[in-house]
């Protein structure tokens, strides 16, 4: 049996090693996020769909742990002990059934629960395995484990499919794809741990219980743990998708190749716009009417600006800026000179090349 003492001792052993490393990883990720200087953005729509799907599955997993959706435990509803005689046990159960009639499932259980081992197996593997398994035998308890394996694995398989969809690059892009391996590994480990705990359980432990309060309803307890584990995994992945897609955490800096590609695209777009401007300018110069309109516009523009610059307020503002040093004419002239020289130097290099 996998006891809580063994689990707690394992956590105490591994905790001092794992917790500092996890904290260090978190701090490193925070530093990378801050140094990457990537702005926070809203959650993309395709990531929001994946988050909603994960949260819905997590909510369903939690709801599935409610007692209303769990298989009926006849020992609990009849307040019976492990050693309660079979006739007394099912007499109490008959009184609780509609019409005071046992169902076919109840009759199948009655024929199987006569021995103490069968009742211990009932608590370990659930009522369905005891009542409906065609090849299970009390003298070979492993057969009950083999029968329940598909039912144990099925919710994990559904959850792995959900995790695969949420981390598919086709659906969630690179934000989800970066967590695909981790999500698959963790989901698989949860399924393997579930199988191990059920397979390693000491199903005879209940044989020493003398009171109903001492019974360990392992099958129903594992249903709760299984649902909560799946819900925690899905909610955790939803949180990671939210944090990474909004650039709040675990930001991957843009690579040099991506930056080069982005700059190249901007330069190509700028070059295209400059070419379009040159074509428009060429058409304007060649067409007589357009040329006259352009000349009229610029002549009128010069007259308007001349009138503005001659106004008393503008003249006084310019004089005040020059005298106070707010405008450094020398520096402006030097910057203009450097810019002009760089433009002509680029043109000379392109022409000689």
Task: Note down, in words, how this protein is organized.
By secondary structure, the chain is an all-alpha fold. Helix 10 packs antiparallel against helix 11 and helix 12 packs across helix 13. It has 15 helices and no strands. Helices cover 75% and strands 0% of the residues.
Short description:
With 353 residues, the protein is mostly helical. The protein has helices spanning 4-36, 45-64, 74-77, 86-96, 104-112, 116-125, 127-132, 142-166, 169-177, 180-199, 218-245, 256-286, 288-309, 312-324, 329-352.
Poorly predicted regions: none
- The end-to-end span amounts to 80 Å
Give, in order, the helices and strands: HHHHHHHHHHHHHHH
* H/I helix tally: 15
Oligomerization state of this entry? single chain
- Backbone shape: rod-shaped
Number of strands: 0
Q: DSSP strand (E) fraction?
A: under 5%
User: What Rg is obtained from the alpha carbons, in whole angstroms?
Assistant: 38 Å
Structural class given helices, strands, pairing?
Answer: mainly alpha
**What proportion of the residues is helical, as a percent range?**
over 70%
Mean pLDDT: 83
How is the main sheet built?
Answer: none
Secondary structure blueprint with pairings:
Elements: H1 4-36, H2 45-64, H3 74-77, H4 86-96, H5 104-112, H6 116-125, H7 127-132, H8 142-166, H9 169-177, H10 180-199, H11 218-245, H12 256-286, H13 288-309, H14 312-324, H15 329-352
